[in-house]
Amino acid sequence: MPKIGINIATGSLQQAEMIVGIDLGTTNSLVALVHPDTRKPVVLKDQNGLALVPSILHIGQHGEITVGEAARTFLKEDPSRTIFSVKRLMGKSYKDLSSSQDLFTYKIIDEDKESLVKVQVGQQFYSPIELSSYILRELKDRAEHMLKTPVSKAVITVPAYFNDAQRQATRDAGKLAGIDVLRIINEPTAASLAYGLGMSPEENKTIAVYDLGGGTFDVSILQINNGVFEVLSTHGDTYLGGDDIDRAIVDFWLKQIPVSAQPKKEDILMVQSYRLAAVQVKHQLSMQSNAEVVVGGHSFSLDQFQLEEIIAPLVERTLASCQHALADAKLSINQIDEVVLVGGSTRMPAIKKKVAAFFGRSVHDALDPDQVVALGAAIQADILAGNNKDFLLLDITPLSLGIETMGSLMDVLIPRNTKIPFRVARQYTTQQDGQGSMRISVYQGERDMVQDNRKLSEFNLTGIPGMPAGVPKVEVAFLINADGILTVRAKEIRSGVEQEIEIKPQYGLTDQEVERLLLDSITHAKDDIKKRALVEARTEGEQLLQTTEKFVTKYAASLSPKELSVTAADMQALQLALTMEDKDLIHQRMEALNETSRPYAERVMDQAVSTALKGQKIE
Ligand code: AMP
């Protein structure tokens, strides 16, 4: 592919399609890309030279949205309509947040404690996904403005500890912002990539990524094996960061003046001035050994030594986390090959020193710690753009993969968003006595009924030796390799009969189709649950009829005429219920039949007349 030069400063000519890297942060977000000329990752800055977009949004009276620096002033002026730290809400239910609720100045609605949270602003409700999408849109706009070309593809980073729901929420936010999220990658992985770690295929290393930002701390232990990153462990504190350091500095100063001279809590402006003075001095101490400031008519000073003392307890907490993460990864300190620093607070010499001393090695700190994650995301984006062909990448499956089981139900073997390569196997059995073959139909999608999903392939496992229903053990294994190729293998374990096919899961499926399938699954979620329940009830009902019939035929001699006639009537009633759309009725009829058969089934079992029924459930 011919490369076309671009001047990021002037925004002159560009490539047709750029893939950007986005760090969607709790306090700040950034967008970066690998410069086509220099082949170096760079963050995109606005007209004022600012790279960071504060992750803050303000929603005006008429629903107008302001994002970033412009929204910051509203934090004080209009707190109930100004949203910050939305990342903390991603993929969370109200229940998850109840302990930290008072840290938010805006309203989080709590009607349904189990479902995903919503933020209420005026009369409107916003999901964290939607709110994040506004930040992402701002980044997309910034990139398009700077590059003078449409930008619709991105790699977005998330903390290593994000679960599936949080990752999916991030992906959905991207989609909503008109961004095709090619990949969600872990922040520590991105930071390591920014330092070139893991970029050579034979590299095998263990890395500790220490990330201390404004409000959160986490440490991740990563292992790179032949270009594949794996998170061995993470630990941290979601409420520990530079903000705590600022508070500690203010407290240190306040102890030096009489209580009567200290600002009152209500004097928000003065409290704020103290905080800002602390931030200023803290930042200065990252470059010089002491600093002074005048605030509220008092002059204060701070030197490196004092600062180290003040922050010692906080640093200790982070190092205890590192210890934890190492223990979880079953590693000792000397097994760590590289240490990477991330987050604005790691600019502090005191922190660098302590972290280096803890790990007993020098740390990677050459890059801007606020930018490393975005820079690494840009490197990943560049790899995805095909500019670095030797590099092996891990992907995730965009949709669930499974097979059809009884009643046309989808049985998911690989849930969507599973990291690949991946392998899973599950056992199935036959429904009919003497069944010699089994059809394996492979589907992709999120709906409960297979007909609502997309059929990928179908094959027959033939040659199953004649056995009673339920006896054969057919193991169906799904294996997706790193290229996204799915191999489905079915094997009858007792006889060893085996068959396999290879499928390319994404072949022919456009992003729009993936999106539609996902949307459908959300829209139809309630219907699907109902349908599934009905199908399950019918399948159970049919099974019960079959088992009862077998039993009654076999042991007719041991049953009284009354038992036989009542059973026949109950069976007929159940048979009728199976033709109707009422799962509760089916359950009632099943229960009635069970009630009827229980006494004689127990009797027959007790007499140990049969071994054939062992393991069957007749309750
Ligand atoms: P982040 O969330 O990664 O953007 O980190 C922001 C935090 O880093 C804030 O608490 C800042 O005060 C802190 N920070 C930024 N620059 C410096 C610096 N030069 N020295 C010390 N702390 C800094």
Give an overview of the whole structure.
The protein has 619 residues and is α+β, with helices and mostly antiparallel strands. The protein folds into four domains: 19-195 and 370-384, Nucleotidyltransferase, domain 5 (2-Layer Sandwich), CATH 3.30.420; 242-308, ATPase, substrate binding domain, subdomain 4 (Actin, Chain A, domain 4, Alpha-Beta Complex), CATH 3.90.640; 401-522, Substrate Binding Domain Of DNAk, Chain A, domain 1; 527-613, Up-down Bundle (Substrate Binding Domain Of Dnak, Chain:A, Domain 2), CATH 1.20.1270. The protein contains 15 helices and 28 strands. Strands 1, 2, 3, 4, 11 and 12 form a six-stranded mixed β-sheet that branches. Strands 15-14-13-18 form a four-stranded mixed β-sheet, with helices on both faces. The model is unreliable at 1-16 and 612-619 (pLDDT under 50). The structure holds adenosine monophosphate. Adenosine monophosphate is lined by residues 27-28, 213-214, 241-243, 279, 282-283, 286, 343-345, 347-348, 370.
* CATH-assigned fold name of the largest domain: Nucleotidyltransferase, domain 5
CATH homolog superfamily of the largest domain:
ATPase, nucleotide binding domain
Highest CATH level, the class of the largest domain: Alpha Beta
Low-confidence stretches: 1-16, 612-619
What's the end-to-end separation, in Å? 68 Å
**Structural class by sheet pairing and helices:** alpha+beta
Cα shape: elongated
Structure ligands? adenosine monophosphate
Number of domains: 4
Q: Count of DSSP helices? A: 15
Count the beta strands.
Answer: 28
| Average pLDDT over all residues | 86
What would you say the CATH architecture of the largest domain is? 2-Layer Sandwich
Quote the beta fraction.
15-25%
Most strands sheet: 6 strands, mixed
C-alpha Rg (nearest Å): 31 Å
